[in-house]
Design goal:
single chain, alpha/beta, Rossmann fold, 3 domains, 13% strand, binds uridine-5'-diphosphate-xylopyranose, NAD binding, UDP-Glc/GDP-Man_DH_C_sf, EC 1.1.1.22, oxidoreductase, UDPglc_DH_bac
Length: 440
């Protein structure tokens, strides 16, 4: 099939690359010329394992074409995917400016009846609004072109995006006509070979499914973070409790790891947007509001532990940070706990030495100039420890799992470790380290 994917952000780029890998011809369209020129040369705007090689190989074969010319793409495509960003507005709702601007571009450049599929995460009812928007522009131009709309949310995780996209647990398709389901099933046929993983439904339910998946996962995490806080005050150990409950198959082991809060481009934004949608329809969602509040508080847990240990005035204290990205294997720092922890510690007078395998540049852009003069970003994890009074682990990159404890002892002024992801074994306390963890 010939496909246009509008938007070369995380989802658009990964989707385009994966469709081309499966033998479809894909046009990836973006209005950002710099980005498209970079991609043509194989320069990726994001760090994601395996994506670079896929993009280069698919372009060499002619299966993946990056362009700013939407007309050229639409003329040669049977299906149009919208995969632009839907960032959070100030009031917590999803900002749909990019969606409607893509819809306008489609209307102004389309030359035949087309299927428009929304992959971006959009509030319930957006699909129909997009179709009406395109058709009203077409009508004004005297065109009789007809549009079908479908919803096909993406469930990939950063850092495992290619694997998730090529081997999805399920492919959710929301549409109104059998023919549309059939087209999209054909498109995904090779992704779900030998397993019927299609879940077919109406458009609004499909849009809702994406929010509910993320909200349910965020709820599991906030629930466990709350349990971790209760474990701390009662003397129980959340790690043991996790194993105790995860073994019940109705609960499962996934997404019940307590830590210093969830971040990323999806959970915080989508929980807020669902709260917002719900309120705009007159329903106040209690659980979702608490999920968000518990998470905001959880991002402060490490700061509170530092204050308990060193006092509220951190003037003269230097702290080392391991991990800045919102999770391992990505350079994404959106809504990352590191931003909250580091800015709060600096406000209290601390100096920071930080290391991340990939995210330092993104972190520098995100943290704000007022804090940068108090932060030294280093290239090696052990360089972050020189003359420091304690180590704070925020992101559990693999290279942090088995630190050289002799080197830690040699470099740190005080043998203090705050482990925000519970990756260290309590037995390091036997070597004289003070270990502060979450809920244990
Ligand atoms: C998430 C969803 O998993 C994915 O399906 C959706 O398409 C986009 O949002 P992503 O944001 O890439 O993916 O990361 P994910 O691996 O889900 O982690 C999100 C956050 O939750 C991270 O900050 C992580 O550290 C945190 N987390 C995850 C926990 O604190 N505890 C857990 O048990 C699991």
């Amino acid at each position: 099939m010939h496909i246009t994917v509008i938007g070369t952000g995380y989802v658009g780029l990964v989707t385009g690359a994966c469709f081309s890998k499966m033998g479809h011809k894909v046009y990836c369209v973006d209005i950002d010329e710099g980005k498209i020129n970079g991609l043509k040369k194989g320069v990726l705007p994001i760090f994601e394992p395996h994506l670079g090689t896929m993009v280069i190989n698919a372009q060499e074969k002619g299966d993946l074409i990056f362009t700013t010319n939407i007309k050229e793409a639409l003329d040669d495509s049977n299906i149009i995917f919208i995969a632009v960003g839907t960032p959070m507005s100030k009031d917590g709702s999803a900002n749909l400016d990019y969606i409607f601007s893509a819809a306008t571009d489609i209307a102004n450049n389309i030359s035949k009846d087309s299927l428009v599929v929304i992959k971006s995460t959009v509030p319930i009812g957006t699909g129909f609004k997009v179709r009406d928007h395109i058709e009203s522009i077409l009508e004004d131009m005297g065109s009789s072109i007809k549009i079908d709309i479908a919803s096909n949310p993406e469930f990939l995780k950063e850092g495992r995006a290619i694997e998730d996209c090529l081997h999805p647990d399920r492919v959710v398709i929301g549409a109104e006509r059998e023919e549309v389901f059939d087209i999209l099933k054909d498109l995904y046929y090779s992704f779900v070979l030998n397993h019927d993983r299609f879940v077919l439904m109406d458009v609004k339910s499909s849009e809702m499914t994406k929010y509910v998946a993320n909200a349910m996962l965020a709820t599991k995490i906030s629930f466990m973070n709350e349990i971790a806080n209760i474990c701390e005050v009662t003397g129980a150990n959340v790690q043991q409790v996790r194993l105790g409950i995860g073994s019940d198959r109705r609960i499962g082991y996934d997404f019940i790891y307590a830590g210093c809060g969830y971040g990323g481009s999806c959970f915080p934004k989508d929980v807020q947007a669902l709260i917002n949608t719900s309120k705009s329809h007159g329903y106040y969602p209690r659980i979702l509001s608490d999920v968000e509040e518990v998470n905001n508080n959880q991002k402060m847990v490490l700061v509170n532990k530092v204050v308990d240990r060193f006092g509220d005035d951190l003037e003269g204290i230097t702290l080392s940070i391991w991990g800045l990205s919102f999770k391992p294997d990505t350079d994404d720092v959106r809504e990352a706990t590191s931003i909250v922890v580091i800015s709060e510690l600096i406000k209290k007078g601390a100096k920071i030495k930080a290391y991340d395998p990939q995210a330092s540049e993104e972190f520098k852009k995100a943290i704000g100039d007022e804090y940068l003069s108090s932060i030294e970003l280093v290239e090696n994890r052990y360089d972050a420890l020189d003359n420091s009074d304690g180590l704070i682990l925020i992101t559990e990159w693999k290279e942090f799992r088995y630190p050289d404890l002799d080197l830690l002892e040699e470099k740190l002024n005080q043998k203090v470790i705050f482990d925000g992801r519970n990756i260290y074994d309590k037995k390091i306390e036997k070597q004289g380290f003070e270990l502060f963890q979450i809920g244990c």
